[in-house]
Amino acid sequence: MCPYMSDIEDNINKKFIHGLDIHDLSQALLEVGCSPGTELKLAVWIYRKRIFRTGAMSNMNKSCRRLLDEHFSLEPVWPISVSESTDGSKKYLFRFHGNRYAEAALIPSGKRLTLCISSQAGCQMGCSFCQTASHGFHGQLSHQEIVSQLAGIPECSRVTHVVVMGMGEPFNNLDAVLKALDVFAAPWGFAIGKRNITVSTVGFSEKLERFILSSPYNLAVSLHSPFSIQRQELMPVEKIAPIESVVALLRQHPILKPRRLSFEYLLLSGVNNTQQHAVAVAGMLKGLRCHVNLIPFNWFPGSLYKPPSDAEVQLFRDQLAGCGVTTTIRNSRGADIEAACGLLAARRFQDVE
Ligand code: SF4
Prior knowledge:
The chain is α/β, with parallel strands linked by helices. It folds into two domains: 59 residues, Orthogonal Bundle (DNA polymerase, domain 1); 272 residues, TIM Barrel, CATH 3.20.20.70. The protein is built from twelve helices and 14 strands. Strand 13, helix 11 and strand 14 form a beta-alpha-beta unit. Helix 10 crosses helix 11. It is elongated. The two termini are 23 Å apart. The protein binds iron/sulfur cluster. Iron/sulfur cluster (SF4) binds next to loops.
């Protein structure tokens, strides 16, 4: 049996409370008769110290520990498998109730340890370059399931950055995503700096406005082409939420310092990396305080697209720089462990389909 498999049998009749915020924890504990204030102590044990056995919770009295044991499952959902790349990145696969699978990828880089998490099991957005898209949508993830993707991995306490950029479109599950991120950022939670948390979206106007106005996190928008017809082919969402309108909204409600705005640009060889693309990207983003991340495409079996060569990546970066656009090249990581978006989970969806 996989060492990460959660003990489902043991916890079957207990309420799963790992991942709740302090308000919901307080409600749950008061309902079973714990004294007020227990929620803060419990949050520190299960989120900060990662202690799930009540016997070790030395600042709790006996009756409180008994109530916790009787009513609650305190552990997160553990991953069912992990793959490790030769470049140091890892990919964790989670199975949630109802055969919903989701992945989290851990990416070390210098002093940074970034965790890329999923917001949904599968995705409805249908991007033509994405493996997750070809296996459809299998359900939302609750905020507790999103929290488990951090809480359930052995490196949890060393993670410095979180990006919501795995499977799913975060704005299609925004309430759960924001609730989970608030647990990540809270001092009683995982205490990850708000400036180290980024949500990546294809962009929907009304939800974008809500995100900008009501959350403290960084924003990354998937651009991938400045030309509407081509972007529709790559990302069908362009038909209902054109990138022009997303950029217009960002001009109306700028992301102010210290938050950061970036645009993700997946480089597909011979498709979206011409001089015309560079000029049009520069024109579209002119005057906006932002950064462009160039991401060379990670090939997967059956894909219509080819990864760009190093020379193509450099050339496109230089063309953008020549037009005044600041870029970073995000090298593909974990190709040997199928780290392209949704590959591991896609395999599991095939198994259950
Ligand atoms: S790229 Fe992201 S938004 Fe598009 S289909 Fe894949 S998971 Fe969904």
